[in-house]
Design goal:
By secondary structure, this protein is an alpha/beta fold. The protein has 5 domains: 2-35; 42-95; 98-152, Phosphatidylinositol 3-kinase Catalytic Subunit, Chain A, domain 1 (Ubiquitin-like (UB roll)), CATH 3.10.20.90; 156-222, Resuscitation-promoting factor rpfb fold; 233-324, Barwin-like endoglucanases (Beta Barrel), CATH 2.40.40. It has helices at residues 2-33, 62-68, 118-124, 308-314, and strands at 42-48, 51-57, 78-81, 91-95, 98-104, 107-113, 132-134, 146-152, 154-164, 168-172, 181-185, 190-201, 204-217, 222-226, 234-244, 265-267, 278-281, 285-291, 300-304, 317-324. A 6-stranded mixed beta barrel has the order 15-19-16-18-17-20. A hairpin with a 3-residue loop joins strand 17 (278-281) and strand 18. It is elongated. The termini are far apart. Keywords: Signal. This is G5 domain-containing protein. One of its GO terms (biological process) is peptidoglycan turnover. InterPro entries: 3D_dom, G5_dom, Resuscitation_pf_RpfB, RlpA-like_sf. One of its GO terms (molecular function) is hydrolase activity, hydrolyzing O-glycosyl compounds.
Amino acid sequence: MKIFIKEKVKIMVAVLFLIVAAIMHTEFVLAKVNPASLPEIKNITVYDGEVRTVVKTRGNTFKDVLDSLSQPLRMHDTYWTSTEKLKDGAVLYVERSVPVTIIENDKEKIIYTTQQTVQGAVNDAGYDWRKMMPLEDGLSKVHENMKIHMVPYTARNVVREESVPAGYTMWYDSSLAPDEVVVIQEGTPERRRLEIEEFISDGKVIHESVFKVETLEAGVKGIARTGKRDGAVGWVTTMNATAYHPNDGGGDGITATGTKAGYGTVAVDPSVIPLGSKLYIPQYGEAIAADTGGAIVGHKIDLCMESYEECYQFGRRDVQVFINY
């Protein structure tokens, strides 16, 4: 009987020990997963090419973020960061490498580059830009499996004169078709002298760079009517014009807008041409719509002259009126 009681006590002690051990283990596990004991969550903005994502991580290094990307960093890929150490709000930029074929003397070699331009790629490949250059534009964008042809070159400076076609100020005319252009006043081209560095390979100019431009004769813009609104600086219409003197009708020479009337002042119908508009009339010159008149209704305008003789000489005629927007 005593033996039985001893064994029973031993069993109870063992069970109690197991229960205490289990409770302690549970508390230990709970302590390990207690959120308060975990590293803070950091929000990291990742730019991978044109794709922007925000990665949430408890990691301590940028490598932890890189390892979590859907596309791991490859051998020739590179990255750079906005901060030295990983912290909330940091930015990670991933630059993916692409294979590019360099061709020289009919021999090809493949390199992997993260450079964005052709010149950057050939610099990566170890070429000396003072001796070799690509036939392709050095500033053009690199793309996967691109072929770049390298050649030796020499350089020389040349002077060249050229004529630049005259530009035209375009005025919208609703009476014209959208693709129709009518020149009102011819422009004159600009003449200029260029100092150019030419790059020569195998006797041919493969590239050139302008390093100085000197204007020999300034160009003058012409004037044209167009049926297209886009690019027009204003609109043009035909109006019936008369001339008046500031003292006509016993007036005091003060316009409807309160300014003193003089050459360059034009009376208009404000419902057609807003007061204050800048105008150009080929037979008259530049003007301002600053006055009104009882007889000036619709497509009629009255041009202020400096003398009665000028008024009589002008008379009444149809003119083209260019109205700035």
